[in-house]
Amino acid sequence: MDNELKQVVEQAQAEAAGVSDIPTLQALRAKYLGKKGPLAAFFARMKDVPADQRRAFGQSVNEARSQVEAIFQSAHEALEAKALAAKLERERVDITLPGHGPVTGTVHPYTKVVNLLTDFFVGQGYVVKDGPEVESDYFNFECLNIPADHPARDMQDSFFLEGGNLLRSHTSPVQARTMQDHTIELPFKIICPGKVYRRDNDATHSHQFGQIEGLCIGEDASLANLERTLTDMFKYLFGDKAEARFRPSFFPFTEPSIECDVSCFECHGKGCGLCKGSGWIEVLGAGMVNPDVFRLNGIDAEKYQGFAFGIGIDRMAMLLYGIDDIHRFYQDDLPFLKQFGKR
User: Fold this and answer.
1) Label partner for 257 (CA 20 to 30 A): which of 61, 101, 267, 291?
2) For residues 310 and 314, what is the distance between their CA atoms, to the nearest angstrom?
3) Which residues have C-beta within 8 Å of that of residue 104, sequence separation ≥ 6?
4) Rounded to the nearest 5°, which phi and psi values hold at 136?
5) How far apart are CA 172 and CA 136, in angstroms?
6) Statement: the pTM of the whole predicted model exceeds 0.70
7) Which CATH architecture has domain 109-338?
8) Which residues are within 8 A (CB) of 125 and not within 5 positions of it... i.e. 6 or more apart?
9) In terms of C-beta distances under 8 Å and separation of at least 24 residues, what long-range contacts does 152-155 make, across chains too?
C-alpha cells in the first residue's frame, strides 16, 4: 500500500513539474485530488481494510494527500512568481527617459450633459436650484404624494440611514423645498440637477446616478407647454431631425403623466439595435403636477397648475455619446474619458 501511495505522489510531482501555466495546473490538481482521483479511490477502499489496520491506512492516505496538496501549492506559487517576474520585466520603466509634459484634463461626459441641459433650460427662463443629498422621508416621499404605504416607494428601493433619513432617490425634494419657500414668488420655473441613489445595478442602472428634474408653475401652464419644451430640448440635444413621442403613464406626483420617447438618431425611425427595432428610444417621464402635491406643499391648486419632468443625466450621456455601460462614468478610466475632449 505504501508503495502505491508513493507512486501516486511521485507521479503527481513529475506531472506538476512539467506544467507551464496555472489553468493546466488547476486541472491536474483536480485530477489527483478530485472525487474521481486516485487518492479518493484509496479512501473508498477503507471499508475493505481490517479494523485493526484502518487507522494506519487512513494516516498513510492522508499523509499522501497532504504531500500532493503541497506539491500543487508549491507549483502554483512558482508559476505565479514566474508570471509576476515576466510582467515586471515587460513593464520596466526606463527612468533615464525624458519626462512627459503637463497633461490637460477634459470635461467629463456627465458634466458635458449637465452643462448642455442647464444652458438650454436657463435660456428658457428656468432657474437652477440645489438641495441636500441626505433627505427626510417627508421631503423625499410624503409631500410628493407618496405616503408610507404607497407601492411607488418600492420602485425606488432607497438607501435608508439611521434616524429615518435616506439618500435621496430623486431630485424632486428640491422642488418641494422650493414650493414651500415663501420667499420665492409664483409663478416660477426651476431645474434641479444632482446625484440620486437607488439600489440598482446593471449595464444601464447604477446605485448612484444623476437627474435633472424640472418644475414649471403658473396660472396657465399646460400639457402643450410641456410637450413643446421637451420637443425643443430633444432637437437641441439630438438635432433638428429629432422627433418626440409622448405616451400615457403613471407617476404619483403628476396627473396626467406621460413617458417621452425620442426618435432613434441612428436609424431615423427605420429600426436598429439601439432602439430595439422600434424606431424610438425611451428617455424620460413627465406630466402635469398632481393637485394633491400642490396642496401638500401649500400652493393654491385652484389658482395654479404646473408641469414637471425628470431627465436621467447618465442615460442622456449614454445616448449622446454611444456609451454602452453606465458604470464607465465612475471608473476613472482615462483613455475612455479622453475620447470626449473634443466633443
Assistant:
1) 267
2) 12
3) 341
4) -85, 155
5) 12
6) no
7) 2-Layer Sandwich (3.30)
8) 189
9) 152/251, 152/252
Give the domain ranges of the chain. 2-90, 109-338
Residue 71: exposure state from Cβ atoms within 10 A (0-12, 13-18, ≥19): buried
Q: Is the bond preceding 256 in cis, omega lying within 30 degrees of 0? A: yes
Q: Cell numbers 506544467 label which residue?
A: 19
Helix locations, 217-342, DSSP H: 223-238, 291-296, 313-321, 334-338
> pLDDT at position 118, please?
96
Task: Point out the least confidently predicted range of 145-159, 201-215, 240-254.
Answer: 145-159
Task: Name the helix (H) or strand (E) containing 29.
Answer: helix 22-33
> In this model, does residue 203 exceed pLDDT 60?
no
Per-residue pLDDT tens over the stretch 227-247 = 999 999 999 998 888 888 999
By C-alpha distance, which of 333, 314, 309 is closest to 204? 314
In the numeric block, the cell 494527500 is attached to: 65
